[in-house]
Structure formats: structure tokens, C-alpha cells
Amino acid sequence: MHQIGAKVQRGERLDRGEALELYLHAPTSLLGRLSDGIRARKHPDGLVTYIIDRNVNYTNVCVARCNFCAFYRPVGSSEGYVLGFEEIFRKIDETIALGGGQLLVQGGHNPDLPLEWYEDLFKSIKQRYPAFRLHALSPPEVIHLSRMSRLPVPQVIDRLIAAGLDSIPGGGAEILVDRVRKLLNCYSKASADEWLGVMRAAHHAGLRTTATMMYGTVETMEERVEHLFRLRELQDETGGFTAFITWSYQPEHTELGGGEATGIDYLRTLALARIVLDNFDNLQASWVTQGGKVGQLSLAFGANDMGSVMIEENVVRAAGASYCMDEIEIVRNIENAGFTPKRRNMHYELLGDPIFRERDVPRMLTLAVARADGDASRPPEIARYTARSAAEKKARLTGH
Amino acid sequence: MAAASPDLLSIAMMADEIRRRMHGTRTTFVRVFEVHVETPLVALPNGLAAGELRIIGRPASLDAAVTAVRAAAAPRTGVPLTGFAMNDLERLAGTTGETLAGICAALRDAGLNGVSELPVDAVSDATAATRTARGAGLSVMRLTVQAPDDARIPTLVLARQLQAAAGGFKAFAPLSRTMSVSAPSTGYDDVKHVALARMLVDNVASIQVDWALYGPKLAQVALTVGADDVDNVAAVDPGTLGTRRSPIEEIRGNIRAAALDPFERNGLFESLPS
Ligand code: SF4
What ipTM was reported for this prediction? Predict the structure, then answer.
């Protein structure tokens, strides 16, 4: 243990066996010390960043049916929704009012939204808000579009870039080991190689992306370590990842059920990621799943970024977690931990000091949702795209 | 000064070392069934597995307090029955003209075993109050803190002094029972405060954290930075959580995931069979 710790302190790389040994046997305080040392080496200025953006989940209709997901509704469900372009524009206006410059756009694999719908959406956003950034469509969504449009992934990415895509979020990675993916019923949406393949293609196309890990379902510790190494290897190859974010599986209202990994598990996993992912510049804290307190403690376990001042969140909330932090609260937590807060964009370029110190912004003590409960309205533009599912075809005929 | 130092990990490690010298990996917890003083117990819920029945809330009158105690004592479960914060009993004495000793005796006669907590920052003469309650046959074992304490040190000193003067306190819960909504304490604040409590209040055996109030995540972290006792684990499985683990599995799982060993106790700090 001592030797592995010394290796980390010298800035040397760990192999899989050493990483596993560290996770399984190192005291939590040692993991904290080692990961905090790496954070301090990579970010000696004492800055902790955050971004003001909004999670927009454009549809909850999904054919993938991952068993850990509490967010999706099957095709034809009365609780299924698709957001209209106008609704999304309103969300952008609200985001800009709060100082945000980006949407994180992710959603279900809805068979009735073809590639053209995405292209039109992105183009119309860029037309209205030219400077606004679109961090959109995780690898499984890109694969879904590739399958629906019968176009290879690189071509789908090119078309999305032409329409306005700026970067790709690292969602849908879960654990990048196919045994686990099969057990979670998410192998068919994207195998480990397919997920990595989309990221490779995106990096080759000049996009930066993030990487994630959802742990705490059915994976072994070896598989958690394997996930980190697969990311490290791709990052060696392309250098396209800007940041890594890990969070614990949220079990409520899911088919898989079970319990949630603990706060200590989170801090240890985060620290291990900081140690293994020596070629990643940034690690985000997941206060959305861990709450503000353990979220802030992440800053002592390798994180150098508080993630997003989230204006809206639907996915984690569906699975039981409902933490909220506005910019004032995020900044207070960063400063309280002894760091200097700075706003950033997706590329980790510094944008400046907290917005609320420059001008009045409304306080946000609860997160917005995709749609008000009971709002079953159908967006007008959806009729322009060919329906594929029987349920949608019928709905168009009957009007609901 | 440690309280202002941002080197969280050093403070945490020092406190953990002290905790391990005192308790090793032994970590105790108590399942508590709370009854509000204004809604006296009618019947115990099905599936109750409590180590302590606790009457919470501020009693409006001595009658109300006695009624709540009688109702909670009636099922004769053998589970220790505690109730009230010492400052609320003092206030009751002030408003009713009864003496604190008289109030404590009445509550004991109604079936109360102990005063639930003594908030060190809210009782004017805590040593005298403790002696009075104990003199009337009630146990007083748990020191708490009522309000967030900006300086974060005085309450620790008060706890230490009170133990030196009166003795007999088994646990001190240093994190305040009330929180600011707009600026709650942070994770760093809480960790440092628990760690400092372990270092400074070395004459009280256990540093305690409230499971329900602070949540499993922070409470579990607290156990690795000086705390060794968990208060207020749910005594009834809410059953609303679908396939989630029961409270007892949850607490044991959290303690084990922190590389510690769980031991259940009751409200009188007596070990329960596992
Ligand atoms: S995780 Fe994504 S792909 Fe899987 S069911 Fe949920 S919405 Fe669909």
C-alpha cells in the first residue's frame, strides 16, 4: 500500500491491479490525501469552477428500457412527452436570465424523433441564440440516431455539428463492461466498445466531450476499475475528454431496485478516479446525487469543479434524489472549502467571477422540471416528422 | 487555529485516530420511535423495532407532558422511554410555577425513564438542572446543541465543562439541531466540527450524529472523522421505498461500508443483541 501511495505521489501511473488494491484496502483518508495532492498539482491556483447551464430532457419516451432508469416512459405511455421548440426556447431565455450560456440536451430514444428533428431543433436554436452552446446527445442517443437513419456514426455526428452541436455529454456510459451492461439491459443501446467508438468519432470530428460513470448497481470493483482504465486509454489516444463525472446509481422507482451506494463509497470512488485518470484535467463533484455536503467534500477527494448550477433536472429526481443548489449556494460552498470560485464553459475556459456579484439574479431554491405535471400538450412541429411507432401514428389520427 | 484551517483531511485524520483509540471500529446506533407530545401515542405501529421511545416537541403544559408520557408508557414494551429537551422542561417550570424537580418527578411517575437531551447552549444552569433531573430519578445522558454556533468552539467547551462538573453523559451530538435554510452548514463545516468535538470533548465517551436530521451520507462520513454513535435511526420501515433496504440494513450497511462494525444499543446506552 505504501509503495502504491508513493508511486501516486511521484506522479506515476497505476496499473489495474494497483488501482484495485488501493480502492479495496487504502484507508479513506489516504485516498483523500492522494487524490487531493493530484488536484492540487493539476490546479495549483486554488480555483474551483462551475458552469451555469440547464439540463433539458427533450423527451422521456424511450425504447431502450434500461432497468436502472426511473425517467423513461414506454412508447404510447400517457406520461410520455416531447418538448416543443417554443418550450425549449423559453427554457433558453430563462437560462440566459440566470447567466447561463449552454443547454445540456439529453433524452430518451424516441422512435418518432428522426435525425431531422434534432437538426431542425439545433439550427433553430443557433439561429435565435447564435452564441448559445449545445452540449447534447450522449453516445447511446447518437447510436440510436445512427440506427434509425441508417447512417454511420461519424456521418450523424457531422450532420449534428453542421446543425449546431458544440460538444457531447458523457452520459450513458454506466459501466463500460459488457457483462454489466447486459445485466442492466443497456447493452443493446450501446455496448462498451460502441460507447467508446462514438466518443472516438466525436473527438476525431473535433468535438470535446465529457466522460461519466454510474456505479453501484451490479458491477464488481474490478469492473469499476476496468471502466476507468478504458476511459484512460481512449483519453491517451484522443485527448478529447474535458472532464470526468461519477455518480451513484439512484434506485428509487427503478425496475432494478436495491439500495444506493453510500457517501463514503462515493468519496472513495471519486478519489480513485482522480488517481487513475491522470490524463483528465477535470473531475466534477456530483452534488446532485450526493447532496450539497458530500458534494462539497468532493473538493477534498479530487474534484476541482462543482459541475452545473442546474436550473432544471429530471432524471435523477425521477429516481428519488432532489438536491438543489443555485449559484449563490455553489459559490458559498466553494469559498467555505477554501477555494476561489470561477464560472466556466464546457471547454473549461474561465468566464469570470460569480454572476450574482455582478448583477441581481433570482434565487433558485427548487429545480425546474421539464414540464408541469399533467401537461400533456403535443408540440405543433412534431407533425412535420414521420411517425414510426404505431402508438404515435394513432395519436396523430386521434389528436391525443 | 484548527477551526479556521482548510486542511480538512488532517483534522479528520487526527480525530479518527482518537476515536479509534477510544472505540476501535465499534460503532453504535439506536433505533428511535418518536412520538410528538401534542399527539400522544394511541397504539404502537406494526413492525416496530425500537431501542428507544422518545417524546419530542415542546410541551404546552405539565398536563400535556404527563399525558404524552402515560400514553407512551402504557404499552409496557420494556423499551426505554425518554422525552423532552432539558430547556423545555426548565421553561415549563418557569411558566407553571412548578419546580423542575416537581416536573421531573411527575414525569418519572408517569413512566418516563430519562430526559432525551440537554442542549448545552440553551440551558442556563445545566449542572444544576442535570442534578435535579437525576435526583428525581430521570437519566440525562445525551448532550446536544440547539442553534448553529458561528464560533463553533464555545459549545464544545460547554459540553466538556458540563461533563467535568456533572458527569454521567454518554454522548455528545455537536452538530446543531436547527439549521439555517438560506445558508445551511456545509460539509466542511460539519466534518471539522465533529472532528474538533472528538478532540476537545475527550471526557465524553461518544460523539454522536443524528441519522434522520443529517442524512445517511453526512452521518456516515461523520463516523470516519470522530463520531462513533448514530442517533435516531428509524424504528419502523416506512415501506414506501419499494425495494430499498430497511432502516436496519441501511444503517448496518453504511457503517460497514465505512470499514466499521455496527452494534445496536438502546436509549439507555445498553448493548442489544445483534
Ligand atoms: S437511461 Fe436513457 S436510454 Fe436508458 S431507459 Fe433511461 S432514457 Fe432510455
Answer: 0.90
